[in-house]
Amino acid sequence: MLKLQSKEFTAKTIEEALEQAKKEFEVQDSELSYKIKEEGTKGFIFGIGSKPYILEIYINENFLINKIREFLDEILTYFDEEIDANIKAFGKTIVIYLDGEGLGKLIGKHGRTLGALQHLIMIYVNRMTDTKIDIKLDIGEYRKKRRRKIEEIAEQAAKKVLRTHENLELATMFSFERKTVHEHIRKYFPELSTKSVGLEPYRKVIILENHKEYTK
């Protein structure tokens, strides 16, 4: 489970400690998790010998999920279509899947709008936490279809490099697209190498033979 912010709280009961944390962090009940550091005891008559609970209470991934949902709801109000958002956290990665009607506008030409939206969400989320969070946004299974297309591009490019013995520079790609190229070449063309060059959002993949170097 992801810990975004944590602090120790001391109280007579777990419920009291959670209430303290809820007010201090200004979050909802579902956005808090805890670990008992020291068990409390009631003691004897009039509370003599009682011991308070000491809890480490932290803001969990539900906080980020709720914030992302609010952020997306605000953006999606500019679209006429009904679009559903399914958001899940897997460690330090948050996966967002959007589905509904008229998704073409959200994807944009060659997935540019999708990439821009993912970048915006990543900036928004990472301003709220010191932990680096990776955002993966998919719209109507676009990434699955795009992955197949990128693999075809990588396949054709690799064969051309082997045929011409010349380095080949691919078009600008998003990070997940570049990763697909790297993985495909590494798996199916061990005699070739790949490297990413340039600055975001204009990074490209270079495909070259193992014994060659890339020179601009």
From TrEMBL:
Keyword Electron transport: no
A Gene Ontology molecular function term of the record: RNA binding
Keywords: Cell shape, Cell wall biogenesis/degradation, Chaperone, Coiled coil, Cytoplasm, RNA-binding
Residue ranges the record marks as coiled coil: 4-31
Superkingdom in the source lineage: Bacteria
GO biological process, one term: regulation of cell shape
Residue ranges of every copy of the R3H domain listed in the record: 144-211
PROSITE patterns: R3H (PS51061)
NCBIfam families reported in the protein's UniProt record: Jag_EloR
Protein name from the UniProt record: SpoIIIJ-associated protein
Organism, as annotated: Geotoga petraea
